[in-house]
Fold each of these.
Amino acid sequence: MKVWKLLCPDAPAAVSAKNGRASSALRSHTWGSVLVLAGSLLMLCCTAPVPARAQFRVGVLIQEMERAQSQAIKGMLAELRKSGYQERKNIVLETRNAKGNRAALPPAVSELVGQKVDVIFTTGTSATRAAITATKATPIVFIHPANPIALGLVKPGSKGSENVTGVAAYSAETRDKRLTLLREIVPGLNKIAIFFDANNQFSRENFRDAEASAKKAGVQVSGYGIKSAEELRATLGGLVAERGVAIFHVADDLVESESDFLFETARKKKLPTMFNEESWAIRGALAGYGPNYFEMGRQAARLIDRIIKGQKPETLPLERASKFDLTLNYRTATFIGLRFSNDLLKKADKVIR
């Protein structure tokens, strides 16, 4: 009778608790029918299928579509397909590419929020920060080569923050591994030159961390805090090639904006260069060691799938990139007169020839 009382609280009691029988045959028949009806209604409520969404919408926000971003999106789509999503059938990607213009990111993400996408996928600092600034309601899943906690994108802890979670590649172990590989690439390495934006707190912290790792490994450090592209070019131009010296890159937007000039200058001065991603080795660095963006995209897709199925971003642990690749540029090595050992070539995931 509790069921009926829930459905109709004003109904009178019909069955005697004392003798367990209805007071009349008519009343017994009536309440029996009611119980059958109530049970049928509850059965119907419990077994009715949940209406399926025709399409889920994933907003993709990027500052610039380069190889890394393209690989990340391909990885994300590949993993979503494995989870049963089909593009333009039950899932749609709304991509916004700022084409290198940071000022275009805020209006782009506002447009995605206005379209009521189910989740926003971002790559890199600028796009992720723009998304976080724009919304506290729409879930955000990022992939990031640097430290999202140090950048203030998420709070310290093992899980995401508010509406944000994602995959990050930065760690002390990765930085130390990059330095270890550089020492293997450049026999007799005793000093590294590090360029960083002196106006950027994150860049300064990156430099200090790299400096500590180098000193722990017994490698000297020459730090160059620069404040403009012009100063960077002038400083690079004044470098003198020395035996056992190499340029060691830490994540820095200012330095990366002048990467082509840096690679050209380093080649002319016969200076080895170690950067933090495959894409830099493809563009001219001697070597790159960093996250595999295709795999990071796949990891992000698994987070997106869980969010679409109802989990909150703040309950999903931040993930570390699962795969890191070593890329060697054979052409750059030949140009500066350096030869990769056979053991090193076997370790490499990719060799640019």
Amino acid sequence: MKHPARYGWPAFLVAAGVAIGSFLLRGYFQPEADVPEASVLSQMDFEASGLTVIRYDEQGTPGFELTAPLAERFRAEDALALLQADFRLADRDAQGAWLGRADRVEVSTDTAPLQMTGEVKLARENENLTLRAPTVWLDPQARRAWGEDTVVLERTGSVVNAQQFEADLEQSAVQLSGRVSGSFRPKTR
């Protein structure tokens, strides 16, 4: 066997090339890192059926429930859209939950208000008060709703129309503004 020094510079250059090449290519042959599911979903267009979204309050009880027979998400819109959605906002003081329905509900983040469009209906259990509007913003955590489109407030014997509204769902109070008008039917015996 020949002594390594007898092979000269060509052998040294080949050995150095193999060492440097393996160092540079080591990242290329490593297994891919796991991609979190959340980032995979954020890059997908998808449809889901029978979707229920539940947000829990501090005590661990369902504070807000949103149910829809169909949901869709498109990357270009960057929001989850629930179609023909029903929702229930639990009441902390047990006077009755707020119930509602919307043709489309857009959910963008966990803390952002929900944008409800289409024929939106909002009513409180155990009360005969119904609010209808084409667009409603609902913040389940702050327990408030508002809208800047025509709103109709109906109660037995009365109908009130306005251009804007803001509702404190905790106190069950609705403030109307902008061309407020109404009609009232007196109770007859």
Amino acid sequence: MTTASNDVLRAVRISLRMSQDDLAKALRAAGEELGDPNEASKRLVQRWESGTSRAPRPVYARALEYVTGRPVEALGFALPVPQARVHSDSAGGHDMDLGPEGIQAPTAPQPLPDGMNYSGIWLSRYEFFSSSRDETFEARHYVVLLQHGTRLTGQSLPGASSNPDSPLTLDLTIDRSVVTGSWTEQTAADGYYQGARYHGAIQMLVEPTGRRMAGKWVGFGKDFDVNTGPWELRLVDTSTSKATLRSYGRAPD
């Protein structure tokens, strides 16, 4: 049986510009701060990221949430998922079509060179319609994308969102020029959406240059209606060094 690595946690750690040892130290410090000491070590972080340990004990889960600012279920661990039921609101969702303005439509799919690597800093842009404000908005994030085989894991950099304190996570799989996966965004507690957590699916096509992906997202709205809209990723830097990550730790223009 093959063990799946936790690339989401690794991406979050790198986005925070921490080594495995740095994260372990931060977790121990968080335990002291929370009054719940732990014995986090570099070896434990390695076990989490390699997938050897699939779920953290509660004492570590609390420290992870404190250090990363994200719920533990958004950190790539294999946690039990409660069942949920969705009902119709008799109104339907909002399905946005690609138009002459905003995000451009993807080009026709074409074969990509074997061995192409998509790790780097990407500018993420997606559009959504707010029914309560009757207006279309665009959200932008600088995302560090890491490739492990055919899997792509993305995590927005701290402070790198057009909506402050709204981290974005991407978990994608690439098959030639087709990218499919899921997205999760934790909105700011003091923002318009008051800390609500949104998630859904995404599918994009990679352009022949390998520097742009474009497609659509799908997700549930606040009334459990199904919404869609355009999404694109544009490569802005192939480096993932600490200096590069630091330079993109700002809201996109």
Amino acid sequence: MSNSVTIQSPLLQLPRELRDRIYSYIFSGYIPFLEKCGVVDTSDENAIFHELPGLCQANRQLFHEATPLFLARSTDSWNTTTSKQLLKLYSHFAGDAATKGVTDISIYNWTEQGTAVQLDLISKFTNLQFLDVVFSFPSIVDGVPMERFNYTNEQGIWWETGLNYIPSPGRSIEEEKAAMSKDLDAFITRYGLDRIIDMPKLNSMQFQFAMNDGGENVTGGNIYYRHRLCNPLWRWAMKKLSEKWGDDEFGVTTTLPEDYDGVNCHAD
């Protein structure tokens, strides 16, 4: 990347507002690297999220003007390594110049070990409105693969017990509810969700659970699960965002209908 700027550049002679519109138009058709890449390389030398478009790399001025606009529309993280690389990229910009335009982000392999990095990244986005997360585990025992999940059965269990799964052997329904509440609180704290949901402009969330026994660096390795925390986590987030924004001003999804009573009518 050159440190000099040719003053004869027709692009750089245009007003900044017009240049920004040109940058945005160019990036509108750009396909993020993650979508084009079939193999994830997590070495320090290779970014697994973005190869910056050539426009961003033409010279220093274009890097600082155009890159924030590119990142504002194309911010996804495949795993912990990707988030570290994004943090390094953002460090080249003063203050919030490159992060203030980010209003939504997707994180596809959020592991417990990578939580500190993910929270550090998310905290940079002071205007964040939507967060999409896939919590990834090497194995899952408290759930079933989505291909074997039966929504009607879960709905029936809820209507009968107030739980979204069959209680553990030897536990009463009330004991199971207490255990679930404890597990939910621990999960929220462990992953910093209590801090995220209080971000000033956040009004929408989507979360899923997945098993990736090959590790978070394996692209396409996620097997999606219906975890027993899905519905309780949805209810927690709905309550928090409702208190924050009021009715109809927010959204939470797990990609499935979670309001059992609002999906189908009770059987006669």
